[in-house]
Every structure is written in structure tokens, then in C-alpha cells.
Amino acid sequence: MLSTRMTMSDALRAVVEARPNQEVFICGRTRLTNRQLMASVDSLARGLAGLRVRKGDWVAALLPPGPEFVFLFFAVAALGAVIVPLNPDLRERALGDILADAAPTTMVTMRTVDDAILRQAPSLRRILDAGGRGSGTPLASIMEAGPADLELPAVAPDDLLALLYTSGTTGKPKATMHTHSSLIAPVVASLKVRELWLRPSSLKILVDAAKALMRYRSRMLRSIGRPQTIMSTMGWHTITGLYLMLQGLLMGDRLAVLPRFHPYEALELVQRERVTVLVAVPTAYQAILALPDPSRFDTSSLFVCATGGAACPPALAREIQSRFKCALYNGFGMTEMGGGVTVCGLEDSDEQQAESVGRPMVGVELRIVDEQRRDLPGGQVGELAVRGEGVMKGYYHAPELTAAVLDAEGWLYTGDMARIDDEGYLHIVGRKKDVIVRGGQNIYPAEIEHHLETHPLIEKAAVVGVPSAVGGESVWAFVRLKGDARMTVREVLDHCRGRLEIYKIPSQVRFVSEIPEGEMGKTQKYKLRAAALQETAGGAS
User: Fold this and answer.
1) How does DSSP assign 246-266, residue by residue?
2) Which residues have CB under 8 Å from 225's CB, separation 6+?
3) Phi–psi pair at 370, nearest 5 degrees
4) DSSP 154-169
């Protein structure tokens, strides 16, 4: 059993010592046992030490998911340095801005880095090439050139391990600071849940297990008590991707990696490696479900389809349940919390898995508060506050922002509007900044969006509030239709009138070919709001 009092390096070594010969990692032609993975991590740690990478140094990882990222992450952890995972597809301007902000001394990448970017990052002393085609010294040669004996520095669980940038759905990304302990905490929570299922400690858990067995039958019997094969489809510079990587490597399981998502390749990997746990963002599931002949792939090995990183519309959740006939782990997490906050489970009904984001993970506390941060009664909508060992140390170089969201008692005020139902399940209804005030009534865009997406011709909807000439805000709905489908504004509004209260019906509907999204599928509403404001300035109301 892992513990939050371990460092990341301690945790990996504990797993390796327990199961040295178990296959743990698959990516393309690379297949590694725990022992082989550890040997590569140690080689890279020695190589980095030979380059004078020291405790407290910052190392940028401009890498896709793959063995190089794994080796670097754990080598940096062993040296007591700090890793800065970055989107390998960042455009030059954004990359330069983040490098200037983080000021790393070392960067590992597979791409050629333009001189203009390097001029923005005077802190960089070395660039290492992980792919054989990029800038800098080949990483492979570094792994062969380190000192034979390496005396590792003393590293504590509370030492800084990672600087993780948020997805930037409201503008400029913020950098969150995480320790070894805060990144291990969500993994420990998942292990504790697994332990409860393997060794039931109450009659309720036994009853839940019996119900789950009746629902999932052979899929559950093949999976429970055995190492899982977990499939990663998202970038490891995101908290969802990084959390998944750590789960796959530290929970005694096997991690199958898809460096870049493609729906056919995802299903082919599920079939070939008998994947039991598929984790993908909602937009990835949409792409899989849109394939013309997905049934030609054998997905009977799947026990769990998990989703997070962005809100999963209930209609999409039900499609996933119907297609794969397995449990849906719909969850909620955030970069500031080091990973998962809530998640659905095997014991939850199809409706609970589709309509909510589950209940708190082990060790996580939730509150719903008003504007003065006072607790609200159950069922009421307010701001979600969370507390647990996974909470960040704060935002890098932003003490004012940190103080605005973290209080003295360790509560993180998320900016998400939510409610907790009578059975303890969390329902996210939108972002605090996105709440629309119309005629004195609060409108939560997620409700309108989810209803719009129940229409068979609508693929995705996004709703924003725009200041109205008569006061308050107008409700603008941006709608992306499926394929070659056609609709009129009146048809959209008629669909809304069938379910929504009058004050929630959009005042403006715009059909668009694309709705701007971050890489995790989160809608970038600030861009839509800007487009609407530009249009209103030209005469629309």
C-alpha cells in the first residue's frame, strides 16, 4: 500500500520491488517490465546528474505520452528536481511565454526549438533531444554517460515536484505547484477504493458488490482482483493524463499508451491488449462513437469506461453505456487538486453514472457555499469547495490568486457552481464566472447545453451570457450540428420550449462549424463571449 508520506521515487521503487517482472508499460513497440522501467529511470537520473541537474532545478518536458516522459518524470523526482510538463504541440508564442514564466534550466523535447523561443528563455542551459530529430543532445547518449554511482539527495514528500499549467479555458493558463505528496494522494485514494472491493469491510459494500456482479457479470469476474490494463489516450501535461499515468504505473496494473489519440487506433489497442479500463475525454468518446463500423473491434474486455477533463453530457454518457455495456466512471477533477475529486463507481446506477460526477474520493471533503463562503443546505446550488491531501501548494508567482482560492483551513474554492443531491452525488452546473443573470434569475448554462444536446441533430452546444441593451444579460446559444444536418433557429427554440422555463430559453442562437475548445474538450467560453460582444457592438441585441 502506497502512502502520501512517500516520495514519488519511493513509491515507484516499492511497486518495482513487489512485482519486478510484471509487464507494466506498453507503447508502440516498447514493452517494459517494472524492473526494466526502473533501470531506465536510474540511467536517466545518473545522466542528468552528470549534466549537473540538481535538487530544486526546473526541467521542462515538451513530450507526448511515451517511455521518454516516464523515465524523465521519475528521474527528475529521484533527483529532487521539479518537472514542468508542457503540451508538445504548443505554438511558438505560447511556448515562449510559458518558458519565460517557468524559467527551467533544462528542456527535453522531440521537436526543434526555434531560436526566437530560446531568446525568451534565458534560463535554459541545456536542451535534450528525446526523439533523434529535434534540438540538443540526444537523450539516449545522456542515459549512457552518467556516473556509475549516484548518491541521491534527500527528498521529502512535501518537496515541490511539478509545475502544472491549467488548461486556460478563461484566458492565460495558471501554473499550479504540486508536491510529491499531493500527486500521490489521488493514487492512494484509488488504491483504498480497490482495497474495499477486494476486502469488504461492511454489509453495504457486500451488497453493492453483489449488485455490481449482477449488472456486469463476466466482465467483473474477469477483472476484480487482477491487474488492470489501463489505456491512456490524453496528454500527460494535463492533470487527467498525468494522474492516469501514475495510476497505471503505481497501482500494480499495466499501462497501454496511445501517444496521439485516433479513434480507430484506440479501438485497435483495446482489442489487441485486452484493455479493461479505457479513459478518454468526452470529445474522444464522441469520435469513437461516430466511427462508421466500430463493432468490428472486439471491446468485450472493457470493464470500465472512464471520462473526465471536461463535462460529459448525459446524452453522451448514455451512448457510452449503451455501446460498451460496461461501467461508466464519470468523474470530476482539477489541476489544483492533483487529479480526481469525485467519481462514480460500480455500485452506482446507470442514471447516477450519467447524470452526476459521483461522490467524493477517499480523503476528499466537499462543501457547497454561498457568496460569503457559508455552507448551503443540501440540494442548493452554490460554489464548490474541496479539501484533501491533493490540494496544490498554490499558484506559481501569484500569491494574490492563491489567497483568493485557498483559505487558512485548506479549503480550495473551485469557481465551479454545483449541488449535492440527497444521496451525496455531485452535480456540476457551470462555472461561477459563466452564471447568467437574466431578469433577476440565475441561469446555469450547463442545463441549457445538456438539453440542447438531447436533440438528435445537435452535436454540441455552448451557452454564454452577454450584456443586454435593456439591462441584465441575454442568453446566447452557439450550436454545432451533426454532419450535414440542417435546423432553423425556430426549431432550436421550439426544442427548448418543450423543457426549459421561459427565462432560460436563448434569446440568440448561432449555428457554428466549430466551438472553440481546449485540448481536453473544455469549451473556451471567453472566445464565444468575445464573438457575441463584437456582434452586439455591430447592432445585434
Assistant:
1) HHHHHTT-EEEE-SS--HHHH
2) 198
3) -90, -170
4) P--TTSEEEEEE---T
Whether the CB-CB separation of 250 and 271 falls below 8 Å is answered with no
User: From CA 282, how far away is CA 287, in angstroms rounded?
Assistant: 9
Per-residue pLDDT tens over the stretch 47-68? 999 999 999 999 999 999 999 9
Q: How far apart are CA 312 and CA 316, in angstroms?
A: 7
Ordered by where they begin, the domains of the chain are 8-165 (3.40.50.980), 182-364 (3.40.50.12780), 435-537 (3.30.300.30)
Taking a C-beta distance cutoff of 8 angstroms, is the pair 438, 472 a contact? yes
Residue 383: DSSP 8-state:
E
Answer left, alpha or beta for residue 110, where phi above 0 means left and psi between -120 and 50 means alpha.
alpha
Task: Dump pLDDT digits (tens) for 462-516.
Answer: 999 998 876 678 999 999 999 899 999 999 999 999 789 999 999 999 999 999 9
Q: What is the distance between the alpha carbons of residues 405 and 4, in angstroms, rounded to a whole number?
A: 23
Pairing of strands 359-360, 339-343: antiparallel
CA angle, 152 then 156 then 161, to 5°: 85
How far CA 50 is from CA of 8, 59, 520, in Å, comes to 21, 15, 37
